Amino acid sequence: MTEIEMSNKKRRTRSENAEFVINSIRELKIEPHPQSRLMKMHNVLTEANGIIPHEDLYFETALEAERDLQLLGFCFEQTNRHPDFKKHVKRAIKDSVLPQEDRGNSPGRDIQFELFIAAVCQNAELNPVRFEEPDITCTLNGRSIGIAAKRLKNDSNLKQHVKKAAKQISTAKLPGIIAIDTCLALNRDNERITKLMPDDLFGELYQKALMHFIQSNHRKLNNWIAGKPVLGFLFHDHQVRMISDVDWELSSMTVRLKTEHNTSQESHQFQDFEAQYVTGLTNLVEI
Fold first, then answer.
1. Burial, 28: exposed, middle or buried (Cβ in 10 Å; 0-12, 13-18, 19+)?
2. Is the peptide bond before 198 cis (omega within 30 degrees of 0)?
3. What pLDDT, on a 0 to 100 scale, did the predictor assign at position 78?
4. CA 77, CA 75: separation in Å to the nearest integer?
5. How far apart are the C-alpha atoms of 143 and 130, rounded to whole Å?
6. Which residue among 49, 173, 190, 242 has its CA within the 20 to 30 Å range from the CA of 251?
7. Residue 4 above 80 pLDDT?
8. Which residues are CB-contacts of 263 (< 8 A; sequence separation ≥ 6)?
9. Mean pLDDT, the chain, whole residue set
10. Cβ neighbours of residue 204 under 8 Å, at least 6 residues apart?
């Protein structure tokens, strides 16, 4: 297992990034509804005069924008314009502003995760990248790899998601990867990280929390995919943390896990994939 800590250091201001995301959506001839989560986030960030105080009515909206708009900004920086890209973006606009309000059905952020995985693959030059079964396909050394992307909203549903993903990969008749978003499953109430601490200490604690979840389920994960052509897992987590008395930042963790039943050839294939894939992430700090 190799762990990668990623912090999205901002290249644009928050308001500039909000404008970039909404303008990118409009370039696809999609007009976001004024009451959609992305427009609410955009309006809070572009209308704010400087720092948004904690007591502001829309403070939580601004914090959630720190996650969603940065991830979408990264997605739109890529040049993938597969025919299904517009359809995916249109669906990604859905959902409530706060993810804890959509613990059951969340088509917007589910598709947003697929867009993110595709963007990482494209940024890593695993081209061509397509939105097709199992969810996304990319290309490594001239061979297609399938990625089933699952956004886990409750750890009790892990088995259901993993088995479904493994079946999708098998049906697609491709060697595959299961990518799992753990943001809400490991933080059901979407609590913010408010304790100030050095980056290295935060990274260590963040890593321990995610690794505890993975190690607790390690044996079950391998059992659930037995007999299916699954090369390994990608676990993605993104959390908003306080970095000063007045500022916040999006920090992310990616963990890669190969499966135990891999042949020597499959192990090498996963190692080649993960080495290339992580080059598509931004601002990496290996820990």
1. middle
2. no
3. 86
4. 5
5. 13
6. 49
7. no
8. none
9. 91
10. 287
Region 48-60 average pLDDT: 84
Q: Strands 284-286 and 2-7, how do they pair?
A: antiparallel
Q: What percent of the chain is modeled with pLDDT above 90?
A: 81
DSSP 8-class letter at 52 = P
Rounded Cα–Cα distance for residues 241 and 250 (Å): 6
- Choose among 90, 59, 55, 73: nearest CA to 9: 73
Q: What is the reported pLDDT for 7?
A: 47
Nearest Cα to 256, choosing from 279, 233, 277? 233
Rg (CA), the chain: 18
| pLDDT of 179 over the 80 cut | yes
Q: Which amino acid is at 54?
A: H
* Closest CA relative to residue 116, chosen from 66, 168, 74, 67: 74
Peptide bond into 134 cis (omega under 30): yes
User: Residue 56 is encoded by which pair of tokens?
Assistant: 């502001």
Q: What's the pTM value of the predicted model, to 2 decimals?
A: 0.94
Residue 59's pLDDT is what?
Answer: 93
Please check whether residue 108 is in contact with residue 92, taking contact to mean a CB–CB distance below 8 angstroms. yes
Q: Which of 51, 76, 48, 66 is nearest to 9 (CA)?
A: 66
Sheet of 230-242, strand order = 136-140, 143-151, 176-181, 230-242, 248-258, 2-7, 284-286
Is the predicted pLDDT of residue 83 greater than 80, yes or no? no
* Residue whose pair of structure tokens reads 């370039």 in the numeric block: 27
